[in-house]
Amino acid sequence: MLSNFNKTILAIALQTSLILTVVVTPSSLLAAAETTAVQAASKRQDFAITGLSLDQALLQFAEQAKLQLLFKPSAYRHWPAPKVIGKFTAEQALEQLIKGLPVHYQWLSERQLRMSTKPVATLSLATEQVVAEALDASDTQQITHSATDLTRLAIQDERDLVRLSTGVSVVEGGRSGSNGYAIRGVDADRVAITVDGVPQAESFAPDVYQGYGYFNGTRNTTELENIQQVVISKGADSLSVGSGGIGGAVQFRTKNVADFIRPEQNFGLLAKVGYSSKNAEWRQVAGGLPPLSVVTHQWGKS
Fold first, then answer.
1. Are residues 111 and 68 in contact, defined by beta-carbon separation less than 8 angstroms?
2. Which residues contact 111 (CB under 8 A, 6 or more apart)?
3. Where are the CATH 3.55.50.30 domain residues in the chain?
4. Longest distance between any two alpha carbons in the chain, whole Å
5. What pLDDT digit, counting tens, does each position of 34-59 carry?
6. Helix %, strand %, coil % for the chain, to 5?
7. Bridge pairing between strands 191-195 and 248-254
8. Which parts of the chain register pLDDT below 50?
């Protein structure tokens, strides 16, 4: 028979062994779960994943692998997903779906996975300040040519003056020359012409004159060699040129002394020779100071 002392020692030993058997650390449980999950994921099976976006593909993967997938679909919707068709393990199929993407996963149990996205590094750029000004509507309605432009573009007559201007042309008068300008389909006397602010005379061609062989009355032309600036205004512009500018206006400004004489000089000279192959026209211009005079001589075929 055991004594009371021996019975006490035996009872303590049995209690200690029971305690040691029950106490298991959480890390051991997690490791065991991951081991079991990896073993389950290592089994090969057939997959046919054809989702267009990654969120759809992950749902198909979870259904075909018979897994519970914990993820937020909206976070994966903007990524395209490759097709995964064939015999793979669950882990292989999942790796193909998220290959090259900032996405990782974690096994929680044999049939449960948790997906998460990795934070993407952002690039910070220096602040740039952009200053802009509204386009003046009048700038789109006006075309301005300076004396330098007339020389650089080799402008010989009114047709050359408007050849690069959209919506502007010269009204042809046959053998009588040109008859003013046409702006956006409005022509002749409905387009105002001024020289140094003075309106030019309108065309004059009454029907009664046709009996005497007068069929065309044209407007005065201006020698462009004497012009400092030309402003072509599109549209009604009665505020600046007065009445008559229904279709627009062509405003000429003639040269002054400063255009002939350079600073700190007492006299100046101007000479020009031009030729137009269209009508075999020659043009010669000579001018100077003092006195202020310009002579233009031109001849050609009609």
1. yes
2. 37, 40, 66, 67, 68
3. 45-117
4. 163
5. 555 555 556 888 898 887 788 888 99
6. 30, 30, 40
7. parallel
8. 1-2, 5-30, 33
User: Which of these, 20, 21, 85, 3, lies nearest to 47 by C-alpha position?
Assistant: 85
Residue 229 pLDDT: 93
Domain 141-257 CATH (choose: 2.170.130.10, 2.70.70.10, 3.60.15.10, 3.90.1150.10): 2.170.130.10
Can you list the alpha helix ranges (DSSP code H) found in 184-301? 238-241
Would you say 205 and 173 are in contact if contact means Cβ atoms under 8 Å apart?
no
Q: CATH 2.170.130.10 residue ranges in the chain?
A: 141-257
Q: What is the pTM of this model?
A: 0.49
- Structure confidence at residue 137 (pLDDT): 54
Per CATH, domain 45-117 is 3.40.50.360: no
Q: Quickly count: other Cβ atoms within 10 Å of residue 119's Cβ.
A: 6
How far is residue 111's CA from residue 104's CA, in Å, rounded to a whole number?
Answer: 17
Q: CA-CA distances (angstroms) from residue 99 to 108, 168, 230, 259? A: 21, 63, 68, 75
Separation between Cα atoms, residue 226 and residue 247, nearest integer Å: 25
Contacts for 157 with CB less than 8 Å, ≥ 6 apart: 178, 221, 224, 276
CB 142 within 8 Å of CB 165: no
Q: Distance of CA 156 to CAs 109, 229, 231, Å? A: 91, 15, 17
Q: Where are the alpha helices (DSSP H) in the chain?
A: 4-22, 26-41, 54-65, 90-97, 137-140, 147-152, 158-161, 238-241
191 close to 199: Cβ distance less than 8 angstroms: no
What pLDDT does 43 receive?
Answer: 81
Q: Fill in the amino acid letter for 90.
A: A
- Structure confidence at residue 109 (pLDDT): 86
